[in-house]
Amino acid sequence: MHADDYARNVFINCPFDRSYKPLFEAVVFATFRCGFRARSALEVDDASEVRIEKIFKIIAACKLGIHDISRTDADPLTKLPRFNMPLELGMFLAAKRFGNKSQKQKNCLILDSSPYRYQQFISDIAGHDIQTHNNNARDAIAVVRNWLRSAAEAPLLPGGAEIHRRYLLFTEDLPLLCQETRLERDELTYLDYTLLAQVAHL
Questions:
Q1: Are 89 and 118 in contact (CB under 8 A)?
Q2: What pTM was computed for the model?
Q3: What is the pLDDT of residue 85?
Q4: Which helix (H) or strand (E) holds 124?
Q5: Which residues does 72 contact at the CB level (< 8 Å), separation at least 6?
Q6: Contacts within 8 Å (CB) and 24+ apart, 192-195
Q7: Judging by DSSP bridges, how do beta strands 64-68 and 37-39 pair with one another?
Q8: Which of 47, 133, 139, 196 has the fewest CB within 10 Å, making it most exposed?
Q9: Phi and psi at residue 13, in whole multiples of 5°?
């Protein structure tokens, strides 16, 4: 793994459900527009490898991580909450705590939907600077942009409002981009979306 790749890789640990999708896509778009590479478990489709091993490998390859812990409500069918996001946050923090010299350089952004809500279900992370997105793409983009600017000591970046403007333009152009590349908007995989987000000229 090249040191520059590690420094620019951002592990995106966010929900994958349909209602969260606009936020997920906004976070991924903002990451690329800030000059970083968004990494996700969705990028790997290898049935021969256990899923958690895929996640370990991606975490190991990323100096930076964005972790959204806002989806803790009970599933309507199972009546149980899903804790994949807190689990993967724990994996990331453990890699920083117990890993080698490069792993100890890890830096992460922890997101929730509203201030102090996390204290009701994961109080052990009290003391971390939890940011809120208010279930709003504009707020999520601004928080991601400001964190990347600080955590990675990135050069001067466009402001959150400008990146959000570009995201809205990209979202409007996406059906045409899909048509030009013979893709269906509803069938875009994570890798399809990230490729289009990178090549879009906005």
A1: no
A2: 0.90
A3: 87
A4: none
A5: 81, 82, 83, 86, 121
A6: 193/25, 193/28, 194/28, 194/32, 194/38, 194/43
A7: unpaired
A8: 47
A9: -110, 85
